[in-house]
Write a structure and sequence with these properties.
With 110 residues, the protein is mainly alpha-helical. The chain contains five helices and two strands; from the N terminus they run ααβααβα.
Length: 110
C-alpha cells in the first residue's frame, strides 16, 4: 500500500503537470505498478484508483473527480482509444522536457 501511495503521490493529476507523471529514468516501474492488469495500458479504472489514492493522501477529493480523471486521460490519450499507453506517456514527457522555458519579458516603461 505504501508503494502505491508513493506512486500516486508522484504521478499527479493536475492537468498541466501530467507529463511529469513518470520520472524519465524509472524504466517504466511506476507505469507497471499502476497498470494492475499488466496489459501495457492505463485504463480509466487504473487511473481512477491512482487518483483516489492521491486525493485521499492530500485530503483533496477534487483530485479524483470524474472530470479531472477524464481530462487526464484526454490530455495523454493521443490516439483517442480511451487508454494511456507507455508511448503516449513518453511522448508527453518528451514534449514537456523539450519545451522552452517560459520567458518573463519585462515590460518597457515607455
Amino acid at each position: 500500500m505504501k508503494k502505491l501511495t508513493m506512486i500516486a503521490a508522484s504521478i499527479g493529476l493536475a492537468v498541466p503537470a501530467i507529463a511529469a507523471a513518470q520520472p524519465p529514468q524509472d524504466d517504466g516501474r511506476m507505469f507497471a505498478a499502476i497498470d494492475t492488469n499488466s496489459d501495457g495500458k492505463l485504463d480509466k479504472a487504473e487511473i481512477t484508483k491512482m487518483a483516489e489514492m492521491r486525493a485521499q493522501q492530500q485530503g483533496d477529493p477534487a483530485k479524483a473527480s470524474p472530470e479531472r480523471i477524464d481530462a487526464f486521460i484526454k490530455f495523454l490519450d493521443a490516439n483517442g482509444d480511451g487508454v494511456v499507453d507507455k508511448a503516449e506517456l513518453a511522448a508527453k514527457q518528451k514534449a514537456r522536457a523539450e519545451a522552452p522555458p517560459a520567458e518573463d519579458t519585462p515590460q518597457d516603461a515607455n
